[in-house]
Amino acid sequence: MSAALETPAARPFMAAQGAAVLVILAIACLLVPAYASAWTIEAILLPFLAFSLAGLGLNLLTGYAGQVSLGSAAFMAVGAYAAYNFQLRLDLPLPLTFLFAALTAAAVGVIFGLPSLRLKGFYLAVSTLAAQFFIQWLFNKFGWFSNYSPSGVISAPVLGFAGITFDTRESRYLLALSVVVVITFLVHRFVNGPARINLIAVRDNETAARVIGVPVLRTKLTAFALSSAIIGIAGVLWSFTYLRTIEPEGFNLDRSFQILFIAIIGGLATVRGAFLGAGLIVVFPLLLSRGSAWILDGGLDAGTVQLTQRIILGATIIIFLILEPNGLSAILDRITARTRSLFAKITRGRA
Amino acid sequence: MSFFRRLAPALLAATILTGSFSTARADEQFFPLQSYRVGPYAAGGTGFFGGFIDYLTLINDRDGGVNGVKLTWAEGETEYEVEKGVEVYQRLKSTPGIAAWNPLSVGIAYAMIDGVTEDRVPLLTVNHGRTDTTDGRVFPYVFPLLLNPYSESSGIVNYIASKEGGAEGLKGKKIVVLYHGSPYGKETIPIYELLAEKFGFELVQIEVPHPGSEQQAQWLQIRRERPDYVVLRGWGVMNPVALTTAQRNGFPVDRIIGNVWSNSEEDALPAGDAAIGYTAITTQASGQEYPVLKEIISGVYDQGKGNLADKNRIGSVYHNLGIVNGILNVEAIRIAQAKFGNRTLTGDEVRWGFEHLQLSPERVKELGAEGLFHSINVTWDNHEGEGYVTFQQWDGKKWNVVSDWIAPDWALLRPIIEASSEAYAREKGIAIRTAADVDTVIGPN
Q: Where does the chain cross the membrane (chain A) (predicted)?
């Protein structure tokens, strides 16, 4: 792989990849707010952004550091409730709200990451389930977290900072987009920096990593903290920019599984995998539902249509995983490799 | 693979056509339905939306619509999940001629309050919802019609009082409230405390963690407490389990009073013998003997147009709730049409209709629903509309009405509701409406 990157044709290709990211960003920042319909932004892009970020956070923990977690939804809830309470009680400016929500989620993540020092694999997965159940119970049990709202459901306050209020659809979208872009960039830097070796060493062989002097304890807890912080922010985006309501039941075990599937299907230990996975898990069912509604147009019972969609989604996931166990990201890699060899052939032909 | 190839252009088209796929013409009024026909709460969803659709079908086929305006609808499956409900809301909200939203889910309704207020389209939460939306001064577009959770609690206590020979009889009695450990279940904790203080009964509230399929510990505690009555605020599987566990622990079933989400055939039937004698509150009686039900059977089901897959469920609690909900929606449109004209109304005009939705018992009789529900009296600042409740007892096969229509203690509840809604208005910076704002209606263009 690295040898391929050294070939002369690779450099313009890398530039092309960077340019592709910029083009996607430009479309997302400029064209989408101006031209996308309300449904596209509210029902597709906002949950897509929140889930991509959650998938990215979990990928850091599961994909790079090899620690399986089934408590992602709980950390989303911690982020959401922390942001709500910081806004309500301290009236913090928006960036600080995000920061403190992330720090709170990170702290909770470290606490629930402690068992990872003794537990591995399935055993760790089961112990992270404790986070899932405990945190949901906590927010349900103690009214303080939801400001004693009688039913425990909170409606999210309007976000605002420096005179700008993020109450319109487009502004909420742009806020979510900027947060996701900044964090994705930071994660990209982090996983391609010196920490990468430690993370992967811990993932691939913990004993060997310990022998060669990798600080296993610190690496694991850092992964838990960063991952939870990012998932916490995803929770803030989910509840403040997308649903605009917060309830404990919305962060149940199903949500944790959804995030785990995003990470696995998108491609473990890749940054873009989270976005591809979120596309498949979040956006594809919606398009399927729109498509089937359009094709059948009331011809079938709505419940039957819904169950059919689930079968199609499930089948698609299985087909994808059989064709490419390394996830959608690997499929994209193969496509780019093909394009690259084609590109190389053309340039060689010209020379 | 050819299936995918065929599906691909359709998907692409669907992506491009993110606009509306079901358009209301000039003389149509549209109901977007956030229904749930799969998932754990499908029994409630299929019954309620089935009844609602059956009534709309009846109005279209029998009367040619409401004064010539045809009723149309489209369904989007929510599985009772908030984000799916929000997606359906976003998908359908640009459809022209929307009359009102009826999500039948507290969570989805919460997520839509800001949106419908912006859109100026009514949001109905019949028999449930956020209690303080009763205050129309703060929530102009939200209507917890017939019965909010506080009125429900008050109605249950008034019923127990009537069995004990009046309010005095409650003094020194002991009541256990067994509630579902969810936002819905907890909503009434403060109101039962208030009622206990007012009537002087002893109160113990016990939580059953979701989903409630194991209740031995709770019923052992109930056995120790020796209460006179147990109020069951359940949901789904918790209800039959409560009844069977009560039987095992020797608690008499006729001393258990179910709330409005513990009152269906689907709650009692699975408990078998343990449910015989169980009593539950309802705003609408079950059964098929009401004229409107007979018309639905002959005009809709006999024509093969019925919505319920299982005809045995015609006249069940959820089905009849859907029919009552249909009556309330249709009559609000009719009342608004009398003011604004017999045409497609805007959401704001339908809001005006709901704020004048006053159906006397005589009018209810004209609609063929005498005995099905009592009456409703919605005003601009009371969005619940003073619904009456009745109590029904399970005989092992069906529910039988065992009480008169009972009025909850609205005057007692109103100050608590206003305190809560005013706090919400302060938090959100909402100006409190006055009677003068009611007639400011946004018409077509």
A: 12-35, 41-61, 68-86, 92-114, 121-139, 145-166, 173-191, 221-240, 260-287, 307-332
Q: How far apart are CA A204 and CA A49, in angstroms?
A: 30
Q: What is the pTM of this model?
A: 0.81
Tens digits of per-residue pLDDT, A95-118? Answer: 899 999 999 999 999 999 888 888
**Interface size, chain A vs chain B, as Cβ–Cβ contacts under 8 Å:** 121
pLDDT of residue A322: 87
Which residue matches tokens 């591995």?
Answer: A120
- Asked whether the beta carbons of residue A245 and residue B110 sit closer than 8 angstroms, the reply is yes
Which residue segments constitute the domains of chain A, with CATH numbers given? Answer: 2-350 (1.10.3470)
Q: Is the pLDDT of residue A339 over 80?
A: yes
Two structure tokens written together for B225: 């407490």
> Is residue B444, in this structure, part of any structural domain at all?
no
Q: What is the pLDDT of residues A223-275, one digit of tens each?
A: 999 999 999 999 999 999 888 888 888 898 989 999 999 999 898 889 989 99
- Reported in sequence order, the residue ranges of B252-339 that DSSP labels E, i.e. its strands, are 256-258, 279-282
B393 SS3 class: strand
Please report whether residue B210 resides in a domain: yes
Cα separation, A30 vs A170, whole angstroms: 11
B277 plus B403 within the same structural domain: yes
- Same domain, residue pair B110 and B200: no
Indicate the average pLDDT of chain B: 89
Provide, as residue numbers in chain A, all residues whose Cβ is less than 8 Å from the Cβ of B109: none
- Please report, for residues B147, B253, B391, B406, the alpha-carbon distance to residue B388 in angstroms, rounded to integers and kept in the order given: 8, 24, 10, 6
In this predicted structure, what is the pLDDT of residue B313? 92
Tokens at A56, concatenated: 């990215």
**Is A150–B187 a contact, with Cβ atoms under 8 angstroms apart?**
yes
**How many degrees, rounded to 5, is the angle at CA B228 between CA B225 and CA B232?**
85
Amino acid of residue B386: E
Interface confidence (ipTM) of the complex: 0.72
A residues 275..294 contacting B (CB < 8 A): 286-291, 293-294
Mutate to test the interface with A, among B75, B112, B207, B305 (most CBs of A within 10 A): B75
pLDDT value, residue B245: 95
Claim to verify: residue B34 and residue B46 sit in the same structural domain: yes
pLDDT given at position A299? 62
What region does A167 belong to: left with phi over 0, alpha with psi -120 to 50, or beta?
Answer: alpha
A205 alpha carbon, distance to own chain's centre: 26
Q: Which residues lie across from B73 on neighbouring strands?
A: B31
Q: Which CATH number does the domain housing residue B339 bear? A: 3.40.50.2300
Are B35 and B116 within one domain? yes
DSSP state of B378: -
CA-based nearest residue to A60, from A176, A172, A191: A191
- The span from the CA of A17 to the CA of A27, in Å, is 15
Q: Dihedral of CA B157/B162/B164/B170: which sign?
A: positive
Name the A residues in 143-172 with CB < 8 Å from any B CB.
150-153, 155, 157
Residue B21 lies in a domain: no
Are A302 and B87 in contact (CB < 8 Å)?
Answer: no
Number of folded domains that form chain B: 2
Look up the domain containing B97 and give its range: 26-147+287-388
A 10 A CB-CB count for A134 gives 14
Q: Is residue B351 part of a domain?
A: yes
Distance CA B207, CA B408 (A): 24
What is the spatial distance between Cα B19 and Cα A49, in angstroms, rounded to a whole number?
Answer: 22
How distant is the alpha carbon of residue A314 from its chain centre? 20
Half-sphere exposure of A123 (CA within 13 A, CB side): 7
Q: Are residues B164 and B238 in the same domain?
A: yes
User: Are B226 and B368 in a shared domain?
Assistant: no
Lowest mean pLDDT among A277-286, B236-245, B377-386: A277-286
Q: Which residue from A289, A291, A329 is spatially nearest to A307, judged by alpha carbons?
A: A289
**Digit-coded pLDDT (tens) for A166-220:** 878 888 999 999 999 999 999 999 999 888 889 999 899 888 999 998 898 899 9
- B249 with B302, same domain: the answer is no
